[in-house]
Amino acid sequence: MNRIILLCALLLFLCGCFNVRDMAKNLRYANNTPVGVENIKFIDLQAMSRGESCTLNFLYFIPLWGDGSIITAAENGNINTVELIGETGYWTLLFSRNCTVVFGDKNRKAPPPVAPAEK
After folding, report:
1. What is d(CA 78, CA 75) in angstroms, rounded to the nearest whole number?
2. Cα dist. 4→9, 10, 39, 92, 115 in Å?
3. 50 in a structural domain
4. In 3D, which of 32, 93, 97, 14 has the Cα closest to residue 63?
5. Among 79, 85, 71, 89, which Cα is nearest to 26's?
6. What is residue 53's predicted lDDT score, i.e. its pLDDT?
7. Do 67 and 97 meet the contact criterion of CB atoms below 8 Å apart?
8. Is residue 69, in this structure, part of any structural domain at all?
9. Using 50, 70 and 90 to split pLDDT, how confident is the model at 101?
10. Is residue 118 part of a domain?
């Protein structure tokens, strides 16, 4: 009986995956205003470059591995100007994976740095 319970727990641990963050619900512009479904132009979204950065966590909040920052996601997608930011995540009993997803236009150049004023 103990082996059956152990086997069931192991199968649940390996196969049980729950979506905890849905990007469709938390997508926002870079200035942190939410994006409504009526405002999304899906053709434009597909034409944008996409970058992602993820962290692996223990017990949902203790980070083990990765960097889930916006800057890392932009670097991974070769994005100069971030236009949209979203989050996705999955939870499997003891471990979770949280990802930051950014969309932007890699062809658009970042504004040139401002030179310091001379004295």
Report:
1. 5
2. 9, 10, 51, 20, 69
3. yes
4. 97
5. 85
6. 95
7. no
8. yes
9. very high
10. no
Structure-token match 């199968």, residue found: 11
Helices within 16-106 (DSSP H only): 23-26, 42-47, 70-76
Q: What is the CA radius of gyration of the chain?
A: 19
Global model pTM greater than 0.85: no
Domain housing 75: 16-105
What whole-number distance in Å separates Cα of residue 25 and Cα of residue 37? 9
Please report whether residue 78 resides in a domain: yes
pLDDT digits (tens, 9 = 90+) for 32-67: 888 776 666 666 777 888 999 999 998 877 888 999
How many structural domains are present in the chain?
A: 1
Q: Which two tokens stand for residue 87?
A: 């989050």
Residue that the structure tokens 């949902």 belong to: 60
CA angle 52, 56, 60 (to 5 degrees): 115
Give the strand pairing for 95-105 and 49-58: antiparallel
Looking at residue 71, the DSSP 8-state letter turns out to be H
